[in-house]
Amino acid sequence: MNANVENNKQYVIFKLEDEFYGVPITFVETIEKVTEITRVPNSPHYVKGVINLRGEVVPVIDLRRRFQFQDKELTEESRIIVLALEDINVGFLVEGSSEVLTIEPDDIDKTTNFVNSFDDDYISGIGKVKDRMIIIVNIYKILGIEAN
Amino acid sequence: MDMSQYLDVFIEESKEHLQSMNAILLEMEKEPNEEGMLNEIFRIAHTLKGMSSTMGFQNIAGLTHEMENALHLIRGGELQMNSSIIDLLFKCFDELEKYLYEIESNGSEGPNTSKDIIKELEEIRSYKGREVKDPVKEASVVNPSSNDIQLNEYVHSIVKKALLQELNAYLLKVTLDKKCMLKAARAYIIINTLEKLTEIVHSTPSIEDIEDERFDLSFQLVLISKSDDKILLKELNSIPEIANIEIISLADNVSIMENTGSNEEANLFMEDEIIENAMTQKVEDNKGKKAKTGKTVRVDIDRLDNLMNLVSELIIIKTRLEDIDDSGTQHNMHEAIEYLERITTSLHDAVMKVRMVPIERVFNRFPRMVRDLSKDLGKEITLFMSGEETEVDRTVIDEIGDPLIHLIRNSIDHGIEEPDERIKYGKNPNGSLKLIAYPDGNSVVIEVEDDGKGIDVERVKAKGLEKGLITQQQAEIMDESEIIQLLFSPGFSTANKITDLSGRGVGLDVVKTKIESLGGVVEVDTRKNIGTKFIIRLPLTLAIIQALLVKVSTEKYAIPLNTIKEITTIEESQIRRVQNNEVVLYRNSTLPILRLSQLLKVEGTTEATEDLIVVIVKKGDKTAGIVVDNLIGQQEIVIKSLGKFLSNIKAIAGATILGNGSVALIVDTNSFF
């Protein structure tokens, strides 16, 4: 039980456009180096394609495109964070991911307090760890499981 | 002692026993006094009793015990077998099956509901030696549906909070059409549709019960939504087979909102989350579901031995390849690879066979169903079944039952006429229904054929016009087979008086969708006053197919071989444009030309050549030519799904993993027609 509570406060941190973002560690299955990505025609624009993850076909979402940043070349640091939500497996393409942080619920500000245009759509809160700001993303909204 | 490890075996064996019980009961109905069968049923009841009490399932044990007692009297000649006893035994059978289903899905047999049946069994025993009068009327299903707006405190406070945030809260009562066959599926569609727009806070009965079809015809949902009721109604109205929808705004109903308890604070955090979700959307997680038992397959030991042999051969060839590495000549290598190829092919075959189950498992519930239905409807119908031994993939077995039930019910209900009417047309008053299964090449065919009145094409056409599925113009040029296809379109079955129209139409769209999801097709063959035949064609195996790999620009795609008619080259200059569509004259008929690079929006063009490589694909008797850049070759591929997130991608049927580890997509050529 105790371990569980601890887990719920942990976030996998990743980088995008010089900002740090976090996803709850409970959703994260693995973090992979970028392998060959096969484009899927007729899929939403932010779907980069699919990869072969040890025999399973997993869709990859380009978070840059999802957050409406300019496209950028992949680097050595680029990673695919594979998430497992209920019966959906999906990868997030990010510009690097190398740490896990514990963020207390009290240190997370709900974004409903902000008046913001596009990106609070994908954000469920902002976490503060020492002097850093970690943007906690809302996975469901990123996946666009809502009616478009 | 922990019995859970035996649970699978228990379920599997009990199912087999129940199946043979069902078969014997049906036989017994024809020859009630056959002693051998009586003994057999007695034996089955006894075995079930023993097994279930070992496993701790007291309801089953109790019921089978009573059955045994009653059967004992019959065996001893103290009681005469008659049709009401058989009916009662059928009821027992249903009850046992229900318990077993509960065990399978929830791990426990649920509440004891067999008191009435046990009472009937006891009554029979007290009638010893006399003829049994009419059995007690059937126990009605208990349905805890209260129509008042009763929300528990938790739901109250969520609704209240939602209203404060200017969201809408509704109580929705949905009543399904009486004729709706796959209630759970319909309810699922409704709930799914709603979840796109709303947050479902509460449901009566619970979502789980609804999914398991444990509800009568109606259910209630409490919803929180940004959208107003008009939008919800509009969405819901597009779903067929709903008899009635009632939306009550909870905002108007302030009184129920007043009495919220004071423990609201405690729930605050959770509520926030729920309401936040309502503003967007939520994915219901069913993780909380109780331990579901795994699917099992009983396998002939010979097949396992065969598998074992093949695996040992695989190990031998592995050693051989290792040796070649040291001394290797090209020739030895080739030989070894050929050998390896033979083994993998046999291995594939053997594994496939392990997954195969005789279709009997689906078929053997139909005699009972046909018996009950024809009794209810006052029709005389004989069911002929053949090919029960035909083997299909285990996944198909689980999925094909509902569509078949649907088709059979359709045939009995609407296809086969009343006895008087049949006599009028000079037919045998006894209608016949044939259920035939047989393997055909790489697929399995299941036919449901009746000798009823057939489909009235004109009325289907009229209905299609009325429903706005086709225009007057289309109606005039459509041929018979195209009109019959209308039966399968989603909007067709919404009519309430569907029975007016020579049957066929009650949710056939569901049947079609299900079969297509299994990679199969449905065809209809109908002749007026002679009968109707539904032909279902399913692939033998779902997982592995032969495919042609092609290249477009730098991307590789797989086209299933069974959809390909031929491959040819066509000169660019032969292509003509007709109303913006490209066609060529090929073998004296026009062939539409589609460019894969355009269909799949492939970037990076290839240099224009005069000779185009064209893969001609077919769907039914329609053909189309697909232009590709290069052919790579034929290959056996393993079909992988793109996952739930990317389901329903246009023109793509799935994916496969190539030898080099990269992913190639499988083209859904059916979507091009």
TrEMBL record, chain A:
**Annotated InterPro entries:** CheW, CheW-like_dom_sf, CheW-lke_dom
Main location (coarse class): cytoplasm
- Where found? Cytoplasm
The coiled-coil segments of this chain are none
Keywords for the protein's UniProt record, in alphabetical order: Chemotaxis, Cytoplasm
Example of a GO cellular component annotation carried by this entry: cytosol
Has the keyword Plastid been applied to this entry? no
SUPFAM superfamilies attached to this UniProt entry: CheW-like
The Gene Ontology biological process annotation of the record reads: chemotaxis; signal transduction
Specify whether Cytoplasm is a keyword of the entry. yes
User: Which part of the chain is the CheW-like domain?
Assistant: 8-148
Q: What is this protein called?
A: Chemotaxis protein CheW
The species this protein belongs to is: Alkaliphilus serpentinus
TrEMBL record, chain B:
Q: What is its EC number?
A: 2.7.13.3
| Keyword Nucleotide-binding attributed | yes
Q: Which reaction does it catalyse?
A: ATP + protein L-histidine = ADP + protein N-phospho-L-histidine
Q: Which InterPro entries match?
A: Bact_Chemotaxis_CheA, CheA-like_dim, CheA-like_homodim_sf, CheA-like_P2_sf, CheA_P2-bd, CheW-like_dom_sf, CheW-lke_dom, CheY-binding_CheA
Q: Which SUPFAM superfamilies match?
A: ATPase domain of HSP90 chaperone/DNA topoisomerase II/histidine kinase, CheW-like, CheY-binding domain of CheA, Histidine-containing phosphotransfer domain, HPT domain, Homodimeric domain of signal transducing histidine kinase
Query: Where are residues bearing Phosphohistidine located in the sequence?
Result: 46
Q: Which residues form a coiled coil?
A: none
Q: Which GO terms of the molecular function aspect are on file? A: ATP binding; phosphorelay sensor kinase activity
**Name used for this protein in its record:** Chemotaxis protein CheA
